């Protein structure tokens, strides 16, 4: 499952060696720090939820957790971070609020705009039969 959060992109898959656990993967550390914080704020065991670096893998950072922990983490993240009326606009605004990460945030925002455009072009019924020239 792919999830686009305001703090970055995560991929969630079943652990190959233990199907009772999930592996939450990210290309940057930031989204996993927010997931971990959401668990910690709700009394979860963050010692066991350490972020593991895997530089040779396509996703450089990972957390392993059981399904209940992930459900609590995602629910906590939603409570803590879903504070905006427009997702793409919120990510755009983050670049202004956090100059240290502005470059990376702007690249992520541009990606989100491309994803939105591609999904709109592919799935919006009003677009059927219309030629789409290129993404913005």
The largest beta-sheet arranges its strands as: 1-2-3-5-4
Radius of gyration: 17 Å
Low-confidence stretches: none
- Secondary-structure class: alpha+beta
Description:
This protein has four helices and five strands; from the N terminus they run βββαββααα. A hairpin with a 6-residue loop joins β2 (8-14) and β3. The two termini are 26 Å apart. It has a five-stranded antiparallel sheet. The protein is globular and about 50 Å long. The chain has helices at residues 30-40, 67-81, 87-97, 102-123; strands at residues 2-5, 8-14, 21-26, 52-53, 61-66. The protein folds into two domains: 2-81, Gyrase A, domain 2, CATH 3.30.1360; 87-127. 43% of the residues lie in helices and 18% in strands. With 136 residues, it is of the alpha+beta class.
Features:
136 residues; alpha+beta; Gyrase A, domain 2; five-stranded antiparallel β-sheet; 4 helices; globular
Short description:
With 136 residues, the protein is α+β, with helices and mostly antiparallel strands. It folds into two domains: 2-81, Gyrase A, domain 2; 87-127. The protein has four helices and five strands.
